[in-house]
Amino acid sequence: MPAARAPRAETVGSLILSSARRLERAGVTFGHGTSNPIDEAAWLVRHALALPVAPPRDDTTRRVSADGVQAARALIAERIQSRKPAAYLLSEAWLGPYRFHVDERVIVPRSFIAELLLSDALAPWVANPASVRSALDLCTGSGCLAILLAKVFPLAAVDGSDISPDALAVARKNVSAYRLGKRVRPVESDLLAALQGRTYDLIVSNPPYVTAASMRRLPPEYRAEPGLALASGPDGLEHTRTILREARRHLNPGGILVVEIGHNRRALERAFPSLPFAWPALSSGEDAVFVLERDALPR
Ligand SMILES: C[S@@+](CC[C@H](N)C(=O)[O-])C[C@H]1O[C@@H](n2cnc3c(N)ncnc32)[C@H](O)[C@@H]1O
């Protein structure tokens, strides 16, 4: 009788590849921190094996124990069966090197504004990071952009506002994890309503901007997120209209407004044909974030 073949030894790399194939075959949707099956599998497998997300040197040939293989496979199965974003399964999301706690009370951080902050601190619109003494992250969710504002503009006092008390509880947890309680203040507010009389050198916002038609077609991963964080009326611009109407009186002279609007550039420019929107270059090639100087905003 031929001897039974020993099971093939799994390495970190082979486990990531086979997991990526499983995710792809199952047709899960990406877009919550990763954009493809390999990155998603690597995130989940590394987490299951308690390995760093970004290892200091290549560790893909490292052998994985039977327990490790089982833990990784179970996590991949959970991702496929639940159709929840990996970020919720792992209670974490990353913007560059910054880790944030997330759970289903908040949208999974993925704002393009983070890219603009981390790549060049909003240059050239902000000429000198030390000149930003006050900033507002409107619609802060997990507090991720408010925290990045505090990191990138070290002299700024930052407000992070949101209408959702649940989201603000998550923001508080993140602010405290980064020991920024003295500089970042979570505030409950319906857009700018509770911020009367407050002015800032910089306002950034990643408000809800999904159109009603897109809301009806959302894949399950996006439906796992709070609808309040996504929907913004028929054309996705309901929140942005209010922001444009009210931002000027909350900006100091020389201040700027930075707002993410997803795929809505054309609709926005049709709605506000006289506003001189600037569209910073993003790695995705999209025009998803506009910048306006205070003096260009409606009075
Ligand atoms: C797209 S999420 C952005 C969260 C976070 N800034 C980020 O980039 O991950 C939008 C946030 O706006 C909040 N929101 C929705 N309607 C709001 C309103 N009327 N006033 C203030 N915040 C609102 C939601 O609770 C949600 O946290």
Fold topology:
Blueprint: H1 12-26, H2 37-48, H3 66-82, H4 86-90, E1 93-95, E2 98-100, H5 112-120, E3 134-138, H6 144-152, E4 157-162, H7 165-177, E5 184-188, E6 200-205, H8 212-216, H9 220-223, H10 238-246, E7 251-260, H11 265-271, E8 289-293
Parallel strand pairs: 3-4, 3-6, 4-5, 6-7
Antiparallel strand pairs: 1-2, 7-8
Helix pairs in contact: 1-2, 1-3, 2-3, 5-6
The protein binds S-adenosylmethionine.
Structure notes:
It is a single chain. The protein has 299 residues and is of the alpha/beta class. The protein folds into two domains: 12-90, no CATH class; 104-296, Vaccinia Virus protein VP39 (Rossmann fold, 3-Layer(aba) Sandwich). It has eleven helices and eight strands. It has helices at residues 12-26, 37-48, 66-82, 86-90, 112-120, 144-152, 165-177, 212-216, 220-223, 238-246, 265-271; strands spanning 93-95, 98-100, 134-138, 157-162, 184-188, 200-205, 251-260, 289-293. A six-stranded mixed beta sheet has the order 5-4-3-6-7-8, covered by helices on one side. A two-stranded antiparallel sheet has the order 1-2. A hairpin with a 2-residue loop joins strand 1 and strand 2 (98-100). Helix 5 (112-120) runs parallel beside helix 6. The longest helix has 17 residues, at 66-82. The chain is globular. The N and C termini lie far apart (88 Å). The model has no long low-confidence stretch (mean pLDDT 96). Residues 106-107, 109, 111, 139-142, 144-145, 162-164, 167, 190-191, 206-208, 228-229 line the site of S-adenosylmethionine.
